Amino acid sequence: MIRINLLPYREKEKREDITRQIMVIGITFVVFVLALGSFHLYLSMSISSLEENITKQQNELDRLNKIILDIDTFKRDKALLEKKIAIINTLEENRLAPVRMLDELTTMVPVKDVWLERLSEKGTAITIEGMARNNIAVAHFMKNLAGSTFIKSVDLVSTKEKEISGIKLQQFIISCVKKKG
User: What CATH number should be reported for the domain holding residue 172?
Assistant: First the structure.
């Protein structure tokens, strides 16, 4: 005899398959949403960590820039002070040079024959203006200047005869170049 099962087992299997598929899709969706949420949370934490790191680095950069500015100011001040010290040292080394030069110059002037009226110095150039009894006294004075330790060269700029109180004198201008050092 043939048996016929009238129970809807195929429909039951179809329902179970559909239910199983819906559950698999639901679980997959939940897992996907959880994965997306965790990835979003990871990215948010990474971003906030990086932003915090950027803020710390920016603060450190600002602090270091202030230190660099202080160092630059210090270097500028140091250079200025070194320049001033160099000038002071140069002045200290050369402070007695004019006194020595004038002392030596007074010994070179022929007594009672030459009178100095003006002495000017500009850089290494020295201009001497004065009066002499005659041209021989001027030549003698120039020879003395040429033998000086501080004069490099002596040139006669001009001489002219000038009468003072009835006496004829020679007015002269001599240009000298000073030795360095």
Answer: 3.30.980.50
